[in-house]
């Protein structure tokens, strides 16, 4: 029994040694395989980098030119209108101003909205920028429609209108002035007295609701008596219809506004 046990023990030790040897060889083979794989990948990366460098040098000076920086859009109708003297009535009907007032506005806002020409393309003229802003304010058309009317993209129409409105806001204090001295107040009262029987009237006040989307916060404050969301614009004009004071942005509160 002891001899058989010793023989079995030797066999187990022999197989253990053999298994350990095979395991070591497998590990060495795996390490060698991984090293070769990493080396091959590094070589491929170097080859790809060299190929990119050689391709860049080969294509240097052969970069294809862009066909167009701006999509072709029809925009000649406004140029014809600007250069024609036979359509003065059309200005008032569509831009809500006369030709003379249009050019006055162009001169006033030009320092703010004028853009420089680049080597890529010419900038949109001040007259066209002013016309786009006035068309948007006068008609309420969408930016997409304004872009189609003046041959520009929708995103460009948005930027032009924002620049034009910001320019008007910067100039408003030069033109919208409420009378402050007694002489100016008496002059406004006299103007109203000549046109009506109301005494001691400096200006006429009124307001309107501008529709808006429902705000995420406190939306109930913007729901007006006409059953839509809006904020209030209020203005005061003199006897000739010239604005003396404007304010906007106040929400409608049912507890404060009755009627």
Structural account:
With 259 residues, the protein is mainly alpha-helical. The protein contains eight helices and three strands; from the N terminus they run ααααααααβββ. The protein has helices at 2-59, 76-83, 88-95, 99-113, 126-139, 143-150, 154-175, 182-195; strands at 204-211, 230-237, 243-251. Strands 1-2-3 form a three-stranded antiparallel β-sheet, with no helix packed on it. A hairpin with a 5-residue loop joins β2 and β3. α5 (126-139) crosses α6 (143-150). The N and C termini lie far apart (116 Å). The model is unreliable at 254-259 (pLDDT under 50).
N-to-C series of helices and strands = HHHHHHHHEEE
Number of strands: 3
Name the quaternary structure. single chain
Distance between the termini: 116 Å
**Uncertain spans:** 254-259
- Rg, alpha carbons: 39 Å
Number of helices: 8
Strand order of the largest sheet: 1-2-3
Tell me roughly what share of residues is in helical segments: 55-70%
Mean pLDDT: 80
Largest sheet, if any?
Answer: 3 strands, antiparallel
The percentage of residues in β strands lies in 5-15%
Structural class determined from secondary elements: mainly alpha
Shape: elongated
